[in-house]
Write a structure and sequence with these properties.
One of its GO terms (molecular function) is catalytic activity. Its cofactor is [4Fe-4S] cluster. Keywords: Iron, Iron-sulfur, Metal-binding, S-adenosyl-L-methionine. It comes from Lasiosphaeris hirsuta. Strand 6, helix 6 and strand 7 form a beta-alpha-beta unit. Strands 1, 2, 3, 4, 5, 6, 7, 8, 9, 10 and 11 form an eleven-stranded mixed beta sheet that branches. Helix 1 runs antiparallel to helix 5 and helix 4 crosses helix 5. The protein is 32% helix and 15% strand. It has 365 residues and is α/β, with parallel strands linked by helices. It is globular, with a radius of gyration of 22 Å. The chain contains eleven helices and eleven strands.
Length: 365
C-alpha cells in the first residue's frame, strides 16, 4: 500500500527549534492513485464503436480531420502528409526512451509512424517524421501488431507516436484489436497539432494523451514549424484532451494509466515562450497537470545546414569564409539558465507535478 504526502497535506506545527519538514509533492498520491484500471475502449458500446468505424471511413474519403484540412480522398491520392489510406510504420517495438511512468520495467509498446502534419525544422525524429520510410499496413494489420506487443512483448501500453495525420486508421486499428483481445491502455503521443474533430473521434478510445506543446508565438511556429496556427490549435487541443481524460493517474506500481502528460522541449532562446506555455497549463488546463520539461534539444534536421546560394567563384567563397548556417539562432544546445527559467515559471504558475529523475536507486515513481 502506498502512503504519500501530497502538496495539500497538513503538517504538524513545529517549534522554532525543530527542523522544518517539507511536504513531498509526490504525484503518486490520492487522488491520482488508482486501485485498478480498465481501458476506455473496453467500455465502448457496440453502437458507439460502429459509429466511430463509419466516421473513420468517411474521413478517409474526405480528409479533413487534421488542421491542414486537405480534403482529399486518401483511397486515391494524398494530402500534405503524403500518406494514403494505409499507415506507414517505421518502427514497432518495446521502447525504453519514454518517461518512467510510461515505459515502466517492460517498456512501452511504441509504434512510430512515418511522416507528420508539421514540418519542424529542428525535428528530433526527422528521419522518421520527414521521410516516407517504413512498411504500409492496413488498420487490421496495425491492430494485430498491438496484440503482438501485448502478448509477446509484455509491454505496459500501446504508444502511438506521431499519429495526427492517420487518426482514421488509428481508430479502426484500436477497434479491431479490441475485438481480438487487446486490454492495454492506449497512448496518443502527439505534437498537439490536432483538430477538435479528430479528438472527438478518438474520445472513448484513448487513455493517455501525451501532447508536446512546442512554441507559443505564431511567428515562431510559422518559421520553425511551418504552421501559423500551431499555438492556437495546441491550446484548444490540450484543453479538449484534459476534458476527456483529466489529470494523469497511476496504479500502485507507478505506471500511468489515464490522463494528460504534457511535454515541452526547451528551445535555445525561446525560454520566454516556454514560460507562457507553463502559465497557460496552470491557468487554463489544470494546476495538477503532469509536465515533462525536457532538456535534450540538439540542433538537428535543417538546423545548422548551409544556406543555399548562387554559385560563386572559389575566390569569393574564400573571402566570405564559412557558409552561413540555416536557423543559426537555434544552432546550439539549450543552456541550464534557459531550462531554469521555464522550470521556475512553471512553479510560479502553480504547477507541481513534474517528471523529475529519482533521487534514489530505486524505480522512478
Amino acid at each position: 500500500m502506498f502512503w504519500a504526502l501530497s502538496k495539500h497535506t497538513a503538517l504538524p506545527r513545529l517549534s522554532s527549534a525543530t527542523k522544518p519538514i517539507t511536504a513531498r509533492a509526490l504525484h503518486l498520491a490520492p487522488p491520482f492513485l488508482l486501485d485498478d484500471y480498465t481501458p476506455r475502449y473496453m467500455t465502448l458500446s457496440s453502437v458507439d464503436a460502429a459509429k466511430k468505424r463509419s466516421d473513420a471511413y468517411t474521413h478517409l474519403r474526405n480528409c479533413n480531420l487534421c488542421p491542414r484540412l486537405c480534403g482529399v480522398n486518401r483511397y486515391e491520392t494524398t494530402g500534405m502528409c503524403l500518406i494514403g489510406d494505409k499507415a506507414k510504420v517505421n518502427v514497432i517495438a518495446p521502447h525504453f526512451g519514454e518517461e518512467p511512468c510510461i515505459q515502466g520495467h517492460n517498456g512501452s509498446g511504441s509504434v512510430f509512424f512515418s511522416m507528420c502534419n508539421l514540418r519542424c525544422v529542428f525535428c528530433q525524429n526527422h528521419d522518421i517524421a520527414h521521410q516516407r520510410n517504413g512498411q504500409d499496413v492496413t488498420p487490421e494489420e496495425l491492430g494485430d501488431w498491438y496484440l503482438k506487443l501485448q502478448d509477446v512483448g509484455n509491454v505496459h501500453n500501446i504508444n502511438l507516436i506521431t499519429p495526427e495525420h492517420i487518426v482514421p486508421q488509428v481508430v479502426l486499428s484500436i477497434l479491431h484489436a479490441r475485438d481480438q483481445g487487446l486490454s492495454l491502455p492506449i497512448i496518443y503521443n502527439t505534437s498537439a497539432y490536432d483538430s477538435l474533430a479528430s479528438l472527438q473521434l478518438l474520445d472513448g478510445l484513448v487513455d493517455i494523451y501525451l501532447p508536446d506543446f512546442k512554441v507559443w508565438e505564431p511567428a515562431t511556429s510559422r518559421r520553425l514549424l511551418k504552421a501559423d496556427d500551431y499555438a492556437a490549435t495546441a491550446r484548444e487541443s490540450i484543453k479538449a484532451m484534459q476534458a476527456q481524460v483529466g489529470d494523469l493517474c497511476f496504479t500502485a506500481d507507478g505506471i500511468a494509466k489515464k490522463g494528460v502528460l504534457v511535454r515541452h522541449l526547451v528551445m535555445p532562446g525561446f525560454e520566454a515562450e516556454g514560460a507562457q506555455i507553463m502559465q497557460f497549463l496552470a491557468e487554463e488546463v489544470s494546476k495538477d497537470c503532469f509536465v515533462n520539461i525536457m532538456e535534450q534539444y540538439r540542433p538537428d534536421a535543417y538546423v545548422g545546414r548551409s544556406k543555399r546560394r548562387a554559385k560563386q567563384s572559389e575566390e569569393n567563397q574564400q573571402e566570405k569564409g564559412e557558409d552561413e548556417k540555416r536557423y543559426s539562432d537555434i544552432n546550439r544546445a539549450v543552456s541550464a539558465d534557459e531550462i531554469s527559467v521555464v522550470r521556475k515559471a512553471a512553479a510560479t504558475a502553480g504547477l507541481w507535478r513534474f517528471c523529475d529523475s529519482a533521487k534514489h536507486d530505486g524505480f522512478n515513481l
